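Page 37, top half.
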Amino acid sequence: MRRLAEGGERHVLVRFQRAPSAHEQELWRAAGVELGHALGAGAFFARVDPGALAGRAERLGGLIDVRELALERKLHPTLLAGETPSWTVVSLDERGEPTVAVYVLLQEDVALERGDALLRELGGSSFDLLESLNGIVAFVPRSRLQALATSDLVAWVEPAMPKMDSVSMPAAAAPLNDSNRALTQANTLQGAPYNLDGSGVSVMVYDGGTARATHADFGGRVTVRDASGMIDHATHVSGTVGGSGASSGGTFRGMAPGVTIESYGFEYDGIGIFLFTNPGDFEDDYDEAINVFGADLANNSIGTNTEPNGFFCHLQGDYGVMCSLIDGVVRGSLGAPIRVLWANGNERQGSRCDVEGFGDYYSAAPPATAKNHITVGALNSNDDSMTSFSSWGPTDDGRLKPDISAPGCQAGGDGGVTSPTAASDVSTAAFCGTSMASPTTCGLSALILEDWRVQFGAPDPLNSTLKVLLAHTAVDLGNVGPDFQTGYGSVRAQACVDFMRLGQFVEDTLAETGAYLRWTVSVAPATSVLRLTLAWDDAPALPNVLGSLVNDLDLFVRDPLGNRHHVWTLDPANPSAAAVRTQVDRRNNIEQVLVNSPIAGTWTVELRGHDVPEGPQLFSLASSHAFTAVPHVRISFPSALPSVLTPGVTTPVIARIVGVSDTLVGGSPTLHVRYAGASYLALPMSALGGDLFQANLPPAVCTANPEFYFSAQGATSGIATHPAAAPSEVLDAFVATVTTVFTDDFQADLGWTVANTAVTDGAWARGTPGGVGERCDPQNSFGGSGLCFVTGLGVTADLDGGPTRLTSPLFDLSASGEYVASYARWYVNDDYDIDRMQVEVSNNNGTSWTLVESVDNNAGDGGWVETSFVVNALVAPTNQVRVRLSVTDNPNDSVTEGGLDAFRIERRTCAALPDCNANGILDSDDTASGRSSDFNSNSVPDECELVFTPPNKPLQGAGPTIPAPPMTAP
């Protein structure tokens, strides 16, 4: 804990024994440790505010390690080794130094504007924003990349990915969409009694360009949405998804000839010696397709083509920024989730990148290496055999690729997939590739989605549900079980729809680490196979660590004798070996248990959150046999539970309590609470309606150390608690009052003064920043309110000479309590020399000053930075407190700028309140609630005072009652 308090406000790497729950993360935030990106295995990036720790963190357990963020944790190994991928070079200066394109991920709490300012300070610029990832596509001088990665604002820097392009190859010009339809059972679904054609389903096709919307096979159902340019590949892919076959008498129709298609292409503006991928285009196009045009599905027959293009072989298997972006989009980072299909790539066209020692394995290239999209390998449509080009897994962190496979070529015969091209409104051609397998699967998915809406209505299935349905009903190929060549096998659409109609699947959530759900499955004698398939759309990972799984769920299946049956796992160190069923899976977000000849009886299925730092986690689970939820009571919360209680104030808490396959026993919902280590009080919760119940945390005093948990009883399942291990594991809160003593957004003059020594230009001034970044100045105030204090106010001015000193008005901090001053500062010095911004505090009206911080530029922080300090830790609070900021450019040999905004002083107190019985609860609440008697109605518990009691009523808290002497006549 000491390491957290050392140093100033900064980002560090913390590791816990287990991932903290959402409530525990709030407690850490209240203690001055704000958890950011989850890195897996209990690790997080975290922002530490030593000024807010104030001893609270000592109460919180589970922290096992704190580390500063070393450069090698934040800079991609290629860049760290001094290499410069050619495709990242966007320009050369007069000395021959390249400016390169990189992806920069900022820490979660850092605004994009601060990242942009940092880039400009380093001589770079922002090319595009990745808003859903809090990242930037940046152009940076190669020599400044280490300074960029070292900045506390930055979480990760990696070279831009090579330009994505279509992943297909020409084939003999002969028909094949007809054999694709036959193999995958699309023909059956298009005919009676199914009569599915994808009507009502909107498909986004994101490709290397756009489709020929006027082609006869589209009949006005394709709309071009950007200016990337019409190409054959996008037209062909769109036709495989949903062409009508009008130009061929229906022979070459696609899988879902009734869908509408939104056609987008990867756009590049031509900057650079070589081409790189701008993920911002992907984000913008998906944002529009989802939120403006209502796309339900997306096909992406696009990739980096690492092997044929001669790119670095180590790209194969990588999980990078583009993969993280895709994983977030699938989950709903742009506002709504979407089902995404992605071609697994054609990297087995050559052997140049067979460098791992496993031949064609490890050949999947980004962005097919993301977790959540449904990646599709390519098979030959005539016999389900493996093609000569389809990429194989695993990824570098050992995950399965592809997820499934589908026809994308043909061995012998016509030798390709025939669909429309852009040559004319009736032209067709035959191509091979995973580019053909992916739209085949996307079109099948449109048929599945159309039927889902008939069977189940809204909402549409999760992406993970679509993945589960396709994998659960696929035909196993090659080695038994999933493999790194074909995934879970060859897709079959009719089998998928027939299974889906049984309804033997569930979509649900696990809230946090340790949470679990259980079901039972009844297996009849002579059953051949029991199969359960699980998938979840995982939280996006950061590329900083090898191992992209963030939320790890475990599927437990036990037979009637109590024997556990494990999921399939593959060995990345022996990728050609068959899958085994001997252990848990710690890599993948799709798992399957398959039991051959299962014994008859009742089987138990349990899903448990092994490690869920980014909960709640939605999941999808399918079963070959009908399964029933084990009766249980589920306790959840519609809003965050309180982490800080105001002393002396009652705090309501609301829980959602539901009986699942069970009936909630009336009157059983209970809030259990104890303060100061006393015995737990059981407080009945009142029904609010709609499965909501409320109770109040009693008014706490400063020494309360509140602990609480919830319980409820099911008629069948019995008592359930939250947390599940309560009372061994409970919820906590702090007790404190926070009041604002002073706040200034500088929209009015509140008495700050400026004093200058040897300043020739650019002294502190209050105004609206007018710069455009040319002189390292802020372009906007921190809070967006308009005005702030800056040096060098003006477009081209900066500070010359100095120091220029900005001094606060006088603050009266003489009342008892802890005082925390917080503010946003801007400081830039383009020469990284001896000049500094100094922040000081005085408790004697400026007679003497104590240093708070000396801000240099060596770490390249730049931009607006929020920080704080505890006044009491530096000087004794008095009624004569001032704060001042000094900035110097002396000697005048650099561009130096400072800024101040959002200044605030808060007082943190916990006033002593009456708690005579030391139970942590306000005395008046003890008596009002009836927990303590109060014979004389003075709001003081009787156990705390000697009181008169009538005959035969014992005296509370004062030993036995002494009888009065008998009365005698005078």
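Page 37, bottom half:
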Amino acid sequence: MVEGGVGFVPVEKRLVSFGRYKGKPLGSLPSGYLRWLASPVSPPQQGHYTIWAQLAKRVLRNRSAFQGLEEQDLEKLTHTEFSSTAPWNKFLHNLDTLKTCVHPATFASLLQWCASSQHLIPGQKAHHHILLHGLEHHPLLRNLIVQMYGDCGALDDGCKHLVALHPQDTLAWNLMMKAYTQHGYINEVLGLYELMLVKEIEPNRVTILNALDVCGKHNLLCKGRLTHHSAINVDHQGDGVVANALITMYGKCGSLDDARDVFEQMPKSDVVTWNALIAAFGQNGLWQLSLSLHMQMKQEGCFPDEITYVSILDACASLSTLLEGRYAHVLVLAMHLESSVVVGTALVNMYGKCGMPDDARQSFEKIPQKNTVCWTAMISAYAQNKCGKDALELFTLMEQEGAHPNRVTFVSVLDACATSANLSLGEKIHERIKNSRFTMDTKVGTTLMNMYGRCGRVDCAKAIFDKLPVRDLASWNAMIAAYAQHGQVKQALQLFDEMKQKRVRPDMITYVSILSMCSRAGLIHEACELFTSMERDYGIASVEHHHNCIVDLLAKAGKLDEAEHLIQDLPEARLSDVPVMTLFGACKNRNDLKGTERMAQLLFRVGRGGKDPSILMAAIRAAHSIHKVARVASESSEVLMKNIQGKCLIRLGGRVHQFRPHEKSHPLLGDICRELTRLTSEMQRAGHFSCIPQKDLEVFDQEEHTGMLAATFGLMSTPPGMPLYITKDTNLCAVCHLVIEFMSKVTSRKIVVKDGSRLHRFQNGSCSCAKWDFA
């Protein structure tokens, strides 16, 4: 028996294949006997859908409910995948018109098809006819109805059905909890668990494990303790699997004393239990205690296995603690486990999470028998560290070596495509997924949406979003982020409202996308309201990026006092250089010398040097003498100029063309510069450079502005009307922005530029950013 699953009463397939049961033709058995045959007297087992569908076909072949269905339609109804729509629609139509009596096994097959293909309306019709036939209390059909509503996303209908019938077996409750978990309704999962206890329905192991998993993942310590208490009441704490889950839950919730208590109350601790406790301490940063437990388990005669070291390495990976990770690597070397595919993959993952892709590659190369998981971990390490080109080259090598990519591999490759803006390969991977055995689940769909969004194809991202059978929080966030990156403010805010109406709770990432978009669009009122509601309505504590967005927005709008108050309200321990430097620049631009001095002094106190020490040096000079602000501003502008000159990439015909400032390696650079000169001369005659200071035009150097070089090359190298997609590793400068705007107008092209902070979509002489970035 598979707990938590849904299935049918065992029936020997050979009897069905002969069309007889106990010597009688199946089609002539009395209906009462068939009802008895289809009524499970014990929890059903999985794997018998096809058998029951074949039984139902032979029993009902000549009945009026199947009138109008051809033989091939009947065969489709018995197919395990239940993938054909037409036969079931004919069947439902016949039921509506003839009010025919139907065998429970046929309804079971129909519900399973509706669940697997997310067809809600046929499922609702099937439920209606089950009620008409008085079969709603049939244990198998009751559970399949719950599963169908859950898989189709109609959770309220499923819960109403469950509560109305008051089933005493735990299977239906487990199915409903699973559906809520898959859709991210955490409160509802635990609410159902508590309702079971109120109704005195004893939870089984699966129920308790589901509840503990939810509590651990979402840091719900109080609920976890209540679940622990109920496990004791039903005598499940002594179950080793439940005890291990309790230790894991307490570890994820940071309650290590409780985890240790569960461990010590176990009559005998095996290696799995030790591993759970080691992982719990490691995840909470107690590295030394994890090592002590590692030594203690050996002293008590429990020899560590590969999973022990995987637990230690995974703890290092989750905390991104490189020093401790290297020490764990030494332990692995001492045990001669580096060549183990399991431990070696954990090393690759650890180094990838710690930002060391080269070290990850070294560990990867030392694994003699690489499996798909190992290859995927290395591709993911490259993708996580923005090494998109290396990730894609490794994917090619993986297939050449004969390894078969799985769903996780495709997700990692799509992440790499997003990082490197490789739209053509991303589209090929999408096509492979559609033609493969993999279904378009939420994880794959969300990754595809992210790839299309970051590559400038928000229309493709929306098409995938609309087709997702189940939308979790990550998929909503990906679609909102795609709209936000493209400056499609109205669509993003509408989707955000729809998300809340669907009872999907936004998280910190949702608000980062929305506030960033409002900041770039200059929506002061909307941003401030969202910032306030974030904690008021959803209890989401603001983080650095949220404050940066609001400060940037207020500073660009000239509301310097409000921005300064927001900065000063933050404890200095939580304050980074970014918002202070933003306001420093805004005060300088508006000649607010006192504000500039205050921000320089604050930056001097909180500044940690950042990635560019010249920023802190500028603040030091400003704090030393207010009369040197002009000099500081000039030096800061030079730093900014170095940033905006970063390299540009454009992919044409499967080849990447790269442009760097003053780099003359491109064979067509002379032609590009001549064409660019023609375009900029035309712009000057038309007065499009009027907003650029004359002194900047006098020193204008084409070869410094890689964005306009890449765009000009794209226009020269592609047929009229073809969109251009460009990637820049730093922010687009005002001059490039103006020139590319003009290019999109005179050539009637769509030009998409993904720069260091956002995505610019140029069309008909305007940009999605509405020039707010240059306010």
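Margin note: The beta strands are 20-21, 24-25, 648-652, 655-659, 724-728, 750-754, 759-763, 766-767.
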